[in-house]
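Hey, I'm writing a tutorial for new members on how sequence and structure tokens pair up, and I'd like a real worked example in the thread rather than a made-up one. If someone can provide the structure for the chain below, I'll link this post from the tutorial.
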Amino acid sequence: MNYDKIVELLGDNANYLLEHKCNTVPKEMLHLPGPDFMERVVYHSNRSPQVMRSLQAMFYHGRLAGTGYLSILPVDQGIEHSAGASFAPNPIYFDPENIVKLAIEGGANAVASTFGVLASVARKYAHRIPFIVKINHNELLTYPNKYDQIMFGSVDEAWNLGAVAVGATIYFGSEESNRQIIEVAQAFERAHELGMVTVLWCYLRNNGFKKDGVDYHVAADLTSQANHLGVTIQADIIKQKAPENNGGFKAINFGKTHDKVYSQLTTDHPIDLTRYQVVGCYNGRAGLINSGGASSGASDLAEAVYTAVVNKRAGGMGLISGRKAFQRPMDEGIKILNAIQDVYLESKVDIA
């Protein structure tokens, strides 16, 4: 997919996104993705040679190999959203092998899934594509539903099945967040001891984050602070939902913020809001990957390209997109993954 096709898919948003100049946090202040990210940024941290080798394995796999950007296929929805709700639209994905095949054929840098999915095909595929094992989940079979991330296995188990990384979710703002922070911090410490990369889903969860009909779970100021907490427990890569609004701290009237967050460091432009999420990741020392969101049907391709353009121009490190890819025939899922990757391969889509 060339630049003209990207412009076409963006439609009326093309100039709005592609011509935007970020006047909030200048790009010169950021640690941007690139082929030299390992030497320029990671090398100076406490990460061991083993961790760096694992991260390099992700950076140098798939269609984005050598660019410093990541395209990851995440399929943990069998637990997080129930297998029926996730895979009934395309039942081939009840078989874990097809999940891994989609990641490989789609040119992803890595595949992220559950212990069960990746263990069931580990001997066949662990050497063919980097595995990211999601070690905790919110399961939806408990009645009434609860919303808590609980551990489903150990970091050592993930290492033994050949994974180069572990992923975890923390519901920041929830009643259970303190326990989750402690559990995940300890797991990440062990992962780094074993030479594995750590990826944190920095999600917000609290009914109080909805105010006057506005859902501030996707507010730039709140999600950026969640990112900041995630990097604090030494996540190497931060996964965050794309921001849809701002001013969560002020609307909910809790915590602490500063007027300059809203008057100087952000605007209402999606690239500027996403840049503030990058700022929360220590100005990009930990890569920000945004989630692709739910499948909307026919508009998925355009939505995926939109999100990729915003993430890249903001200074993010890539996309982690699942449902848009696997809830359709495999050839169409591959097309969506490739379209996302094409945005990061296109030099004309530059940093705002």
